[in-house]
Amino acid sequence: MISAPKIHTDILWDLSAFFVILAVLYFVAIFFFRSKFLKKSADTNRRKNVLAPLVSEFLFYQEEEGSKEEKKSYIQKKVEIRELIKDPINEMVLTEILLDLKKDVSGDTRKQLFKLYKDLNLELRAFEKLKSWKWQKISQAMFELTQMQVAESYDFISGFINDKRSVIRKQAEISSVTLDKDGLSYFLDTTTYQISEWQQLKILEVLSNYDDFEAPRFYRWLTSKNKHVVLFALRLIKHYDQNDSRGSIVTLIRHKNNSIKLEAINCIKQFYIVEAKPTLKAAFWRNKANVKLAILDTLAEFGDKEEILFLLDVANKESNFTVKSKALSAINSIQPEYIIPTEDIELFDEDAEEPPLNFNTPTELTADKENLPEEIQEVSEDTLPQVDIIDRMYAAMVEFVPKEIPINEQLVDQEISGVELEQLLQEKATLGCIADLPFEEEIDAAINDTDDEISVFSEEEQYEVCNSTKELSASYQSIFKSLFEKSDDDCKLLLLDEMLTLADEKDLPFLNSLTNYPNPIIKDKVAFIKKGLHERLEKPEPAEGIEDSVLEVLNEISENSYIDESQMIDDVIKKESICALKPRVAKSLKSMELCFLEDDIGANSLDLFDINFQIDATTDEFRSSVRSTETALTTEHEQALTKEEHGFFQKFLDFPTTLTDKLNG
Amino acid sequence: MDAIKLLLADDDQLLASLLDFRLKKAGYNVKVCTDGKSVKKYLETERPDIIVSDIMMPYFSGLEITDYVRNELKLSVPIIILSSAGNEENVLSAFKLGANDFLSKPVSPAELLLRLQKELARI
């Protein structure tokens, strides 16, 4: 059985009485203090009602306009108010009124307000308060003097800038900057304490209220021992666009304090201090993520292609996801669409959806993939060439190509064999239309089926030419070498593909040098390309690039039939040739297509066909002219681009566009 | 000639008394109201020649007073709105409701007098 504990009733009564007394005391205290505050408030309002009209009268009194009685009344009221403010409460109320009115009025009335404050010697009482040991009184006095713009108080107040008590210190900082235009300089020179963000904003607000503020050169404080001053100076430099301390700002990237680093980087970004790029890149890896992000942001702002490798490096090595993403975004900011989306992209059979290729597209000119070994085909097809690879190749190409391309007369249109000529004549007989002229590939195919005996040169003469080419090859540096060295593996494979079509004997030494290449895929590919190139070089190549000019010539001839056709066609040949021909050589070298054209338009009465036949018939003369030209141009040839190289360059210019078209379906 | 009747509505008593003093000195017959309710009450019986009203007031704001004057009382009396700086939206609303002019605080009493004269000259 549970029994309740015994409690004496007397104790319960005593406790009840105690709590009742406490409650009564509580309510009495509340009522007492409430009535006291209400009384005080009512008293203040009463005093305000008495003082406010007096203040209004003083503010709007105009001495020169007032009558004698008004002046008398004004003096009496002044005496009256002086008597009133002898009471500290009245003085406090009057100060309150003036401070309130200062917020509400502007113009002349405000000036009168400041004048009245001084006339009533209220500032002397504020100075006395500054000597108080109570922080709230000192702070209040400083605020009052600042609001009433008592410039004389500046010296007193600036002494509190390094006060131990933060409230006084902060008020002193604001007051110093407000009361004197040099107050900011003095404050930045002397303060040894932290300047809070809020305080910085308040000071900036004060400065912005100055009508004619001339900001000092803030770089002076970048060397301050107080890191908060340095930080604030950087912000002020940025705020006032003071672009005269670039060196100091760049140095501050290496500051230990993260906030200062960030602010320095912001300044660099704002002022486009491009010379800071090496320092930014050097400092990158040592910093925290937020600084890294700021650096990447800055590089994205004014970086160029030189920064892309660094950014790629960051994207590969950085573990922080945000920084990594920022690096990729920076790359695309520098060069739009440098990085294409790869995540969650569906792969599909490109061959199935590939649009029909146009004539002369770079893709069409690449090596026949069907002839490649299986493993090489996989490599070349699976590794989709990205835009960056193309860009690198393009950059390397642009760098390689000399600004002024020397003319190489020898290498244009000279390799027209009798077989081609015969083939073209046959084609002409069957088709009879200029627009349907056989293309390069078709001519190649036809040549394969014919005997090589019919040639412009005899075997002996061919050997001589070949020898001269070999001599040339020894000193010749392959165009592919430069590209190959600057490319990655994917790109190298692409380049080798191109070599199958474009390379010639001169590139064989370079291919030989790659036979022991460390990468087995490239090594195999080199062997294949070498073999393919040997096979290809055994066949002569037809001239190309005339088709377009043919149509032009036709149009012109149809319009101006009276013009000397042969002369006009010669002109067109000169124009259309990648390298301009010297007149003598141009006259003796006519392309097969052009002969065909002239025949078709009825120009056979001219010497055009004769010239071509002369090539065959008067071989001695032609050979001697070729040899002399070759000797003269051997030195030039080392620097010149061959027609094939030009074609290769042109293909690379077109290749990104073609590839983009393909990717876009 | 009777003095121009001016209704001054502002809940800041200190500023109201200061402007009251200045306007009376300039010859206006000023009635000061410190809240929207007293303004409406006054307008039920009196017709001022011009109204100067603050936007932020107890009970009814300056915008509501403007709306009341224009749409309920159908009065074309000029209304000048007093507004704190950075309160442009309210000022625009006041203009849409039919206010004639506005002055931003802190107020220059001299400027207020000029604007009053300009508005009265229009009538």
From TrEMBL, chain A:
Residues annotated as transmembrane: 12-33
Matches recorded under InterPro entries: ARM-like (IPR011989), ARM-type_fold (IPR016024)
Tree of life domain: Bacteria
Keywords for the protein's UniProt record, in alphabetical order: Membrane, Transmembrane, Transmembrane helix
SUPFAM superfamilies: ARM repeat
Name of the protein described by the UniProt record: HEAT repeat-containing protein
Organism in which the protein naturally occurs: Cellulophaga baltica
Lineage: Bacteria, Pseudomonadati, Bacteroidota, Flavobacteriia, Flavobacteriales
Automatic annotation (TrEMBL), chain B:
Domain of life: Bacteria
Record SUPFAM superfamilies: CheY-like (SSF52172)
UniProt xrefs under SMART domains: REC
Residues passing through the membrane, by range: none
Residue numbers bearing the 4-aspartylphosphate modification: 54
InterPro entries: CheY-like_superfamily (IPR011006), Sig_transdc_resp-reg_receiver (IPR001789), WalR-like (IPR039420)
Keywords: DNA-binding, Phosphoprotein, Transcription, Transcription regulation, Two-component regulatory system
Any Gene Ontology biological process: regulation of DNA-templated transcription
GO molecular function, one term: transcription cis-regulatory region binding
GO (cellular component) term, any one: cytosol
Protein name as it appears in the record: Response regulator receiver domain-containing protein
